[in-house]
Amino acid sequence: MGDTVKTEDEKLTVFYLEEVSKDKAIKFLKYWKDNGFIGDDPQIIQLDVLEDGLIAVKLIEKSTYHKEALSIHEKSLLQELERNLEKKVFEQEVTIIITDNTFRPIERN
Known about the structure:
The protein has helices at residues 22-34, 72-90, and strands spanning 3-6, 12-16, 43-49, 55-60, 94-99. By secondary structure, the protein is an alpha/beta fold. α1 links the parallel β2 and β3.
């Protein structure tokens, strides 16, 4: 699964694979925290680099939502988040992947 960084209260755990530096993982964790993305439930996020060089931010979605399609508004918010992460954290192209609890992408019809 890779190395990890965590918030002090352990509400957020970020796994980062070897292609992602610890500095970038810490910067991502700080961005996530500073921008209010940490809620009451613990979160686990994985950072990876895809074959085409994109940074993949893998977010685990609760299983109760797996069958629901994302709304246009939700897709727009994810795209905005990708752009912000590109500029403020990674300084390279980012894709957000919604996954199950094993970091496998969720296929929606």
